[in-house]
Amino acid sequence: MALTPVQNQTPAFTAAVSAAAGGFFGLFVGTAQGSGLLGLVIGAVLLGAMGFVYCNLLAQEKPVRWATVAVFAIAGFLLGGLPALVVGALFGWFAGWFIFWLATSSYRKHLPPYLTPGQVLWYYSFRVICGAIFVFLITPILVVMPLSFNAENFFTFTPEMLRFDPEGYSLKHYQDFFSNDDWQQALWNSLRIAPMATFLSVSFGTLAAIGLSQPHVPFRRAIMAVLISPMIVPLIISAAGMYFFYSRIGLQGTYFGVVLAHAALGIPFVIITVTATLVGFDRSLTRAAANMGAGPITTFFRVQMPLILPGVISGGLFAFITSFDEVVVVLFVGSAGQKTLPWQMFTGLREQISPTILAVATILVAISICLLTTVELLRRRSERLRGMSPS
Amino acid sequence: MSDTTQTGPVLAADGTPLKRSLARALRMQKMRALMLIAPLLVFILLTFILPIADMLFRSVENRIVSDTLSETVVTLKDWDALGDEAPGEAVYESLYYDLFVAAEAKEHTKLGTRLNYEETGISSLFRGSGRKVDDVGEDHVKAIERANDGALKDEALWFEIMTGGSSAEGNTGLLDAQRAKLSQLTGDSFAGDIGFVPGAEISALFPRMATAYTDFALFTAIAEEDVVAEEDPWETVFVAFATAVQSAGGAEKLASYTGPGAAELTAAAEALAELEPISFKAAFLDMDEDWGDLGNWRTIQTYSPNYTSGYFLNSIDMQKGPEGAEPRPENQQIYITLFQRTLVMSLVITGSCILLGYPVAWILANLPTRSANILMILVLLPFWTSLLVRTSAWKVMLQQQGVINDVLVWLGLVDDAARLVMINNQFGTIVAMTHILLPFMILPMYSVMQTINPSYLRAAKSLGATNWTAFWRVYFPQSVPGIGAGSILVFILAIGYYITPEIVGGTKGVFISNRIAYHISSSLNWGLAAALGSILLAVVLLLYWAYDKIVGIDNVKLG
Fold this sequence. Notes:
The structure holds two protein chains of two kinds.
Chain A: H1 11-33, H2 36-54, H3 61-103, H4 106-109, H5 117-147, H6 159-162, H7 172-179, H8 181-212, H9 220-232, H10 235-248, H11 255-279, H12 283-291, H13 296-325, H14 328-333, H15 341-350, H16 356-385
Helix pairs in contact in A: 1-2, 1-3, 2-3, 5-16, 7-16, 8-11, 8-13, 8-15, 9-11, 11-13, 12-13, 13-16
Chain B: H1 18-58, H2 63-68, H3 70-76, H4 89-104, H5 108-116, H6 122-132, H7 138-150, H8 155-163, H9 172-186, H10 200-205, H11 207-223, H12 235-246, H13 250-256, H14 262-272, H15 280-287, H16 294-302, H17 310-315, E1 318-321, E2 324-327, H18 335-366, H19 369-384, H20 387-398, H21 403-411, H22 426-449, H23 454-462, H24 467-495, H25 499-504, H26 512-521, H27 526-550
Helix pairs in contact in B: 1-27, 3-4, 5-6, 7-12, 7-14, 9-11, 11-12, 12-13, 18-19, 18-22, 18-24, 19-22, 20-22, 22-24, 23-24, 24-27, 26-27
C-alpha cells in the first residue's frame, strides 16, 4: 500500500548515494586487502557507475538484479574461492536491491507524505540502529551453532570451515557428548532434578496462586513479596544461605536438597504466570458449578483447572527451565553426585575448554526454541480461552 | 413493605444479624485463601527464608573462640589489652587445659584458621602448639608415674580414685557441665552413659583434676568408644594433680583426702617435692615465643564474645582493635573497592541496557502486530536460552582468537599481532551482561509503550512540535515507568551476578558475588561470606522495596 505518490529519482542522485554506499563497503574490503583508499575509490566508482546505468534499465529490474548477483558471485569466486562467492553473491543481491530501491523511490512510498527528507533519513537510520541491536541480541546464539560442528578442538572458525570444506566440519563433539560418561551423567542428573523440582513448585505454586487471587486476602502484598523473593534475591546469596542451612540439617549434597532448593527458585515464576492467568478468570463459572452441585474439588478440576491450565503449564515450563539452567545453587547445595548439565558446562568453561560445550549449547538452544514456541502457543490459547484479544 | 419501619438490625435468613453473618462469611473467605497459600508459604519459609536468616545469623556469630577456649576467655577478660605485658600465669594455665582438650578433639586448628582471618600467623601457632601441648609438665608426669614403683600407671586405680569407690557420692553436676562443654566444642552430642561419675570428695578437693579426668572419661567413652577404666588418663590429670599439691595449701588438702589411692597419691606428692612447680607461661613461651606476643592475645580477647561485628567491619575494610573499630592496613583494603566496582558496573550495564533497549522496545510497540511478533522472538529467544549458553557464546566471541577479533583482523582494522583484549576484564563483563540482561529491560519497556496512544504524538506534531519536542515532551514522560521498572529489575539482577563475571570477568571484572563464592568454597571464611552477603542482600532488598512501591510486584510480567 503506497501512502505517497512517488516518481523515479534522477540518475545523479542514485549514482551519488550508491557511490557513497560503495565507498563504505570498499573501504572495508580495501583495508582487508592492504589499501583502504584504493578500495574506497574502486567501490565508489563501481557502485556509482552501476547506479547511473541502472537508472536507465528500470523496466528490466528482475533480470538486471539477477545479473548483478551472478557477476558479483563469479568475481568473488575468482578472487577468493568459495567463501568469497557467498559474500559476493550476498553483496550483489544487496547492491541490486539498494540501487533499484533508490532509483524507483520505493523508500518513500510507505511513509506519510508530509515527512521532510531529514525525517525520512532518520526513519531509516533508526531502523538500521534497531537492526544492529537485534543483531547484537541474536548473533552470539547463532555463532555457537556452526562452531559446534568444528572438526578441530578449537573455539574459533578454522580456515577449513570458512572454505566450506566438508573436512572442517564433523559431528565429533556431539558424539563426545553422547558417549562421554561425565556429560551423560550430568544430563541424567539434570533430568532427574528438574522435573521433580518443577512438580513441587507447580503444585504448591498453583494452589497459592489460586489463594492469592481470591478477593479478600489479608497481607496480600507482603505474602506476594515473600513468594516472589527467590527471583529477586541474588542467586549467590540464596546459594550461600542454603549451603549453610542445608549442611546444618544434613541436606547439603543430597538429591533431595537440590530438588528443594530448585523448587524454591522456580516458585516465583509459577506464581507470576498463574496469577496472570487468573486475572481474567470469570468467578461466576465456579459459582455456577457450585450451584449445580459440584463440590470444591470437582469444581477445581473440571471447571477452573482446564481454564488456567495454559498458565500452569507455562509456569511449569519456566520452573523447569529455571532448574534446568540453574548452576549457582546446585554448585553449592549439590555434591559431585548431583552434577547437572550447567554445572558440567561451567567447569568446562573454567577449566578444560572443549567444544563439546558448544555442542551442548546448541542442543540447549534447540530445547529453548521448543519451550519458547510452546509457551507462546499456550499464552495465545489462554488469551483466547479467556476471551482476550488474540494478538 | 413493612421492612422500612423495622428498627432492629437487619437479619439474615437464619436469624443472625446480617452484619455478623457477612463478617463471618468474609472471615471464612479469608481463612480459605490463607489455607490455600499456607503450604507454599511454609515451604518457602523453610527452604528459602530460613536459610537466609541463618546466613544473616552466621555473619555475627562467633562462638568458636568461647567454645574452644571456654576457660581462657574467662580468665583473659581481666587482662589489660592496652598494657604492654603478656597475660599472667592463670591465663596460660587455662589455655593449657583448653588447648589440650581442643587438640584431642582436633578443634584447635579450626580455631587457628578462624583467628588467622584477623591476625596472620595464629593458625600455625595453634597447629604447632596442639602437637606440643602434651609435653607440658613432662617431668612431673614421669615423676608421678615412677613414684610407688609405678602404682599410678594403673588405669583402674585412677578410675577408682576419681570415682571415689563404688559406693561414694557422685558429682553429676560436673559431669553434665563437661558434657555440655564438649558438645559445644565438637558440635557432636556427648549424651549417653559412660560408666563414670566423678566422686564428690575428689571434685571438692582437686576440682581441676576431676574436671580433666571427666573430660578424658567423656571423650574416651563417647568419641573413642573405649572403656574409661582401661585407658591411660590424659597428661592433664597428672599435671592438674601436680599443680594442686605444689600450690599453697595443696599438702593439707591431700592429707585430708581419705578416699581410694590416698597412699599412692601421697607418695606421688613426695616424689614431686623435688621438682619446681610447673610454670605454664614458661612452658608455652618455650613451645612458641609467639605466645608472648601481645597482638595474638589481643586478637583472642577481641574475638572472645559469642557475637561479633568483626565480619561486618571486615567487609567494609575495617577491623576490630583493642580500642574499637579501626581501618585496615592499606594493602588489605579490597571490599570497598569491590562494592564500588559492583555498583558502578551494574549502573553501566543498566545504562547500556536502557540505551539499547529503548529503541527496540519502541519499534516493537510501534510496528504492526505481525512483524512485532516476529521481532519479539529475537528478544525472547535469548531470554529463554540458558545463561551458560550465552556466556559461553560471549567467550567464543570475545576471546583473542575469537570471532570478533578474527573479523576485525580480516577487515584489516586490527593488526594480527595486536588483537584486542576484550575478555577477562571489565569490558567483557559489561558486554556479556548487557546482552544477557537486555530482555529484562525490553520486556517491561515494551509493555508500557504498548499502552501509549500513538495519536498523542501525532497531536503534538500537528500542534507544531518538532519531532524531538514531541518525543521528549509527550512520548518520553509516558514511557518513564517502563524505564524505571526495567532499570530496577536489571540493576537488581546485575548486582548479584556470579556466573558471567566468573567466566568472562578475569580478575578486574569480578563482582562482590564472586568474592562471596570464594570465601564459601575456597578460603572457608564463612562468616565473612555471610557478612558480605548480608550487605548485598540489604542493598537488593532496598531496591526490591522501591520496585514494589513504583511498579508493584503483581505487575511483573514474563514474556
